[in-house]
Write a structure and sequence with these properties.
This is Sigma-70 family RNA polymerase sigma factor. With 177 residues, the protein is mostly helical.
Length: 177
């Protein structure tokens, strides 16, 4: 809360610390939605740019600052998919960073298969369940934070999560559980 108030007062270092604290969460949320590293990086930077421009409008209403950032990111992702630019994009393969170690082909295949099965199962959930699972398990938000982001009460989120997990259990192949 102190960092947000200092950022609202114009202290650049405070906003930088907020960025350090929340950038991974925002990036992971966006990356899961768009599936491309470059696009996720662009939308993450746009999220923080918009947050910086509108930091003065943020008010404490029992809502975590991270939930506010995820809401901005959620709107940017929606805008991205609505734009004609998205439909014209052609993605290219990602290059390994110099400090990354390439894993064995067997490990890569096994991880890819299990991730693909899980992502396929998540994509087969209804949109509300997809968002709930993403926020709760990929982003690590609490039930209360997820409720705020999705505009629902905590009981509804618990029910949505329970149903989503049960549906995932039915959709996943036995060897991926």
């Amino acid at each position: 809360m102190d960092l947000v108030e200092r950022a609202q007062a114009g202290e650049a270092d405070a906003f930088g610390r907020l960025y350090d604290q929340y950038s991974d969460t925002v990036y992971r949320y966006i990356y899961y939605r768009v599936g491309g590293k470059a696009t996720a990086e662009d939308l993450t930077s746009e999220t923080f740019l918009r947050a910086l421009r509108r930091i003065g409008t943020f008010t404490w209403q029992g809502r975590d600052f991270g939930a506010w950032l995820v809401t901005i990111a959620r709107n940017l992702v929606a805008d991205h998919f609505k734009s004609s630019r998205f439909r014209l994009e052609i993605t290219t393969g990602e290059m390994l960073d110099a400090n990354e170690v390439e894993r064995s082909p067997e490990d890569s295949v096994l991880e890819s298969l299990s991730n693909a099965a899980l992502l396929d199962a998540v994509r087969r959930l209804n949109p509300q369940q997809q968002e709930c699972v993403t926020l709760r398990f990929l982003q690590g938000l609490s039930v209360a934070e997820t409720a705020r982001v999705m505009g629902k009460n905590e009981g509804a989120i618990k029910t949505l999560q329970y149903r989503a997990v049960r549906t995932l259990a039915r959709l996943l192949p036995d060897d991926a559980r």
